[in-house]
Amino acid sequence: MHHTAFYLSFLSLAIALMSCHGNNSSVSSATADAAAQEQPPSASAQTHDMIFNADSAYQYVAQQVALGPRVPASEAHAKCVDFITSTLNAAGVDTVTLQRATVSDAYNKSLPITNIMGRINPEAADRIILVAHYDTRPWNDAEQTDAALQRPIPGANDGGSGVGVLLEIARVLGQHRPAIGVDLLFVDAEDSGISGPWGGGEDTWCLGSQYWARHQPYTASNSPRYGIVLDMVGGRGARFYREYYSESNAPSVVNKVWSMAARSGYGEYFPNETGGAIIDDHVQLVRGGIPCIDIVECNNVETGSFPPQWHTLNDDLQAIDRSTLKAVGQTVVNLVYSER
C-alpha cells in the first residue's frame, strides 16, 4: 500500500496526517454488539466449486511479479492488463471491459491509465463490487539515495495480492454462479502518489479509482449495494483491523465481513478492533455513492503500521503467505454466496 494515512485518536477525535498508525482500541460496545448480532447466512455446505484455492491465488501473484514492476505506462504494466483480461475471460466471467483514460499524475504530467472490470451476472440489478489495484509503486520509499529511490518495487503484496485473490474469486464464481451480480474491478494508478514532507496530498493517490468513480457504469437502479477493496491481503502474519473510514461510511458492511470471517473460522485474521484511517480506493467509491470498505493490513505487529516490506524492494514473493490469502479469499467467497 501507499498513500496518505491518518492516526486516529478517539479521545479527541482529531485526525493528524501521518503514515497509518492504527489506534488498536477495541470497537465500541455498540459496534461490537452489532457485529455479534449480525447473522450471516450459514456457510453450510460449501461445494468443491465454492472453495477458494490459496495455491491458485498464490500463482496469480507469482505471475504478476514475474512480469516485473507494473508501473503505469511501462511494458510490464501493459502485460499485466493482458494477463488480468485473459485470466478473467478464461474464468468465464460474462463481460470484461477496459476503461482507458489519461489523467494528471502527482507531478501534473499526463499519465495513461486502464481500469479493468469483469462482470458476473451483469443483468442482475442486485449486485456488489470487489476492488483491487494492480499497479505498483514507481519508486522505493525506503532508500535514501536518489539512484536507489528510483528503483520500482516488485509489488507482490502491495498490488499483487489483492489482484491474486480477485482472480481466484473470479474462477470460483465462474464455476458456480452466485445468486447476485458481482463486479470485479481492477483499478490503475493507485500507488503513484506523494505524501509526507514532499507534499502532494491525498488526491495524488488512487487516480484510477478517482476516474472510475466519476465515470462509473451504473445508474441509480443498478448501482452495487456495497463494495469491498482488497489491499495488501497476503502478508505473513497479517491481521486486518476494522479500518476507520470503512466503519464511518459502511459500518453494516464491516460487521457483515468481520462476522463472516469469524463464522468461517478466520476470526484470528480479522480482530474485532478498530485500526487506522486509510486513504485508499474505497474512499473514492464512497465519494461516488457506493458504500465501500477496505480490507487492508495497517497494524503490523512489527511496525505498528504497514508491513515492514511496504514500499521496499523486499515486497516480493517471500512476503506472501498462502494462509493469509486463504483467510481473506474464503471469507469473501463465503460472503458472496451468502447474499440473496
Protein architecture, described:
- This protein has 340 residues and is an alpha/beta fold.
- It contains 10 helices and 9 strands.
- The strands form 2 sheets. A 6-stranded mixed β-sheet has the order 3-4-6-5-7-9, sandwiched between helices. A 3-stranded antiparallel β-sheet has the order 2-1-8.
- The two termini are 33 Å apart.
Question: Outline of this structure?
Answer:
The protein is an alpha/beta fold and 340 residues long. Helices cover 34% and strands 17% of the residues.
Give the key terms.
single chain; 340 residues; alpha/beta; 6-stranded mixed β-sheet; 3-stranded antiparallel β-sheet; 9 strands; 17% strand; globular; disordered N terminus
What profile does the largest beta sheet have? 6 strands, mixed
Secondary-structure element order, N to C? EEHHHEEEHHEHEHHEHEH
Return Rg in Å. Answer: 18 Å
How are strands sequenced across the largest beta sheet?
3-4-6-5-7-9
Question: How many strands in all?
Answer: 9
Distance between the termini: 33 Å
Coarse structural class: alpha/beta
The portion of residues forming beta strands comes to 15-25%
Give the uncertain stretches in residue-range form.
Answer: 1-48
Helix and strand topology:
Layout: E1 5-9, E2 14-18, H1 29-37, H2 54-67, H3 75-91, E3 95-104, E4 110-120, E5 127-133, H4 146-149, H5 156-175, E6 181-187, H6 207-214, E7 227-231, H7 244-249, H8 251-263, E8 277-278, H9 281-287, E9 292-296, H10 322-338
Parallel strand pairs: 5-6, 5-7, 7-9
Antiparallel strand pairs: 1-2, 1-8, 3-4, 4-6
